[in-house]
Amino acid sequence: MTHARPAGQHTVRRHNSALVLGAIAESPGISRAGVAARTGLTKATVSSLVDRLVAASLLTDAGPERRDGPGRRGTSLSLSPRGPHGLGVEIAVDYVSTCLVDLTGAVHHHRTRPCDNRSQPVGRVLTRVAKAVDTALGDAAARGVDVGGVGIAVPGLVETSSGLLRLAPNLGWRDVDLPAELRRRSALPGDGVLVGNEANYAALAELWAGGHDGLRDFVHVSGEIGIGAGIVIEGALFDGTRGFGGELGHFAVSSRGPRCSCGARGCLERLAGQEAILDRAAAPDLDVLVERLEAGERTATAAVRGAADWLGAALSSVLNLLDVPAVVLGGTYARLHPWLADPLASHLSGRVMGAPWSPVSVLRSALGTEAAVRGAAASAVRTIIADPDAYIAPR
């Protein structure tokens, strides 16, 4: 039998550092006395930890705190925008995207490079990604900031326990160790690298920065070449026991539908994904489709309504199972929201059992196609805030 050991001094400090930094992240402008009151730590302990966090560029002293009433005002503390940044990387089917996010959540140097990643070998695509990573690291150096963590968003199944990309059907990839492969090709840091499904990262970005005040339970649907769903319940991502949840695009909605890249037939993404909509609308790209929709062209409108029917058939099953009150349309669907939302909402109202008492809201993502890369970068930042000593100690 293994007996638990008392927490050592370093363990206690690590815990308390996270407690202090988390309190300040939740209440920017709070004073040392306010942190002590909120956390239950002594003022002396808080002062010592704050000094250490300031020295590590995680906190900044913003002058006297703002508050009403008499008495001496304490020093206002906030997360430092010059502290470590998170680097987000998204490897999509038809583009590679990067951005930097600072501790306050502000986005810097967002870059998107269109490219066809389906027709290229894995190594060639990752060489392209590595160049984008090195450019982003150069952007951070030009800002004079450290990259404290990296998040990589991919369109496939990422195993939580190992971080391996097990399968990306639309890329044709299987069992790829992305951090190891990119380290061989770029200056990617040796630690602090996260890998996750793009729809999950997009859902987290929507939760943290989407502007839907009070929305803590929803399904975020990112529709591009593939279709992914990020499920948020009680303010936390639900991605299944192994990280494989949310594969909405591979719901079988038609037994006679076209063959999918996953090997099955009639998957949702083959009937309601971006390529299927463009094909039915006879539009060469999304910009032309939107122009035709704005002009009221019947073929374009019918293509989007048809996608809404297929999407509604799949989402009604998800909502009947999970009982969440909202769907957020992201990616391509965010641009199509004005024409997609009403027919989708109508479909859901007729097929979701609880809709008569709790109508399902169909919302538009304000982040659009940037959501996944921003969520990946923000996840790296939040990892630092949750455990600042893991960032400070090696440095």
Automatic annotation (TrEMBL):
Asked whether the keyword Coiled coil is assigned, the reply is no
Point out the signal peptide segment.
none
Q: What is the lineage of its organism?
A: Bacteria, Bacillati, Actinomycetota, Actinomycetes, Pseudonocardiales
What is the organism of origin for this protein? Prauserella muralis
A Pfam family the protein falls into: MarR_2
Family the UniProt entry places it in: Belongs to the ROK (NagC/XylR) family.
Q: Which residues form the HTH marR-type domain?
A: 18-62
Protein name, as recorded: Sugar kinase
Question: CDD domains under this entry?
Answer: ASKHA_ATPase_ROK_BsXylR-like
Entry keyword set:
Kinase, Transferase
Q: Name one GO molecular function term.
A: DNA-binding transcription factor activity
